[in-house]
Every structure is written in structure tokens, then in C-alpha cells.
What we know:
Elements: H1 2-15, H2 26-31, H3 36-60, H4 69-91, H5 93-99, H6 110-120, H7 125-155, E1 157-158, E2 161-162, H8 172-175, H9 178-192
Helix pairs in contact: 1-7, 3-4, 3-6, 3-7, 4-5, 6-7, 7-9
Amino acid sequence: xxxxxxxxxxxxxxxxxxxxxxxxxxxxxxxxxxxxxxxxxxxxxxxxxxxxxxxxxxxxxxxxxxxxxxxxxxxxxxxxxxxxxxxxxxxxxxxxxxxxxxxxxxxxxxxxxxxxxxxxxxxxxxxxxxxxxxxxxxxxxxxxxxxxxxxxxxxxxxxxxxxxxxxxxxxxxxxxxxxxxxxxxxxxxxxxxxxxxx
Length: 198
């Protein structure tokens, strides 16, 4: 059982990463990746929502009628997103304001629905919880990589702290949404390019 938990966890991190392999959750890459702090909070929020919604859906899967399962899944996901939104507004109001409507849009994130349908519906709660965590981590790592490049070149900072020299000229293109597509495309290209062994 330990090996299966490990393989489930590692699969979503790289081999079957939801962003670079399944090409899911791309809207978030445009929305929140010009700032590492916002990206990190969004990633933690998605990990929380994916893990607990997968756990809950898996635990209830035998009691949910098949003809309404999608509606029930969305209701469960929405419950966790509302909890996340309330916590952010209470404890991190500035980040909550910066993320704006994108927290609410976690409800419709394809990664969460994908894990619910592809995994939680056919596996136990513990494995589904682990799968949800790893899918969220895989998503977060890619978005953090995009945010690292965008914030560094767009603002000359990392997590809001200046790291580039005073004479550095920020790249305006990096602050704009299209830069996320270019960076994400480069990451997908690198990830999918086979390593040639001599």
C-alpha cells in the first residue's frame, strides 16, 4: 500500500502533471503568475481544495446517484472554495483583494473536476486525498516557475523583495498576460523534449 501511495503522489508531480501533460488550469497561469506571493497562495488554495474535495467525493461516491454526481461534485468543491475565500478575506485581506475573482474560479478549475472524475470516483478516500495533494502541488510548481520568471524580469523582485540591481530596466512584457503563455509554452516544450542519451 505504501508503494501505491508513493506512486500516486509522484505521478501528478511530473509524469502526469496536470498543467504540462494534461494542459489543465491554464487560465490561472495568466491570472496570478506575475507575483510569486499571489501564485503561492493560489497554489496552496488549490492544493487544499483538490485534496479535501477529492477526499469527500471519494468518501461519498457510493451514496451519490450517478445522474447527479457532477452537480454534487461541484457543490462539494464550491463548499471548500467558500471556506478558502472566507479564510483569505479574514486573515489575508490584501492578497484576497489582489486575487479577486480568481479564488472563486477555483470551483470551475478543470484539475479539481478531473481528479474527482478520474480518480476519486474509483479509489478510496486516503488515496484520493494523496492524489489531490499531488495534483495541487504539480500545478503549483509549474505556476511558481512561471511566476518566478515573470516577477523577476517584470519587477526585478522575488516575493516583493528587490533582487535585481538598481539600474535594471523591468521588462514590461513580463507584467502582461501573454508572457505567461510564452513561459508556460517553454516549460511544456522542455518537459516534453526527450533527453537524448549518447
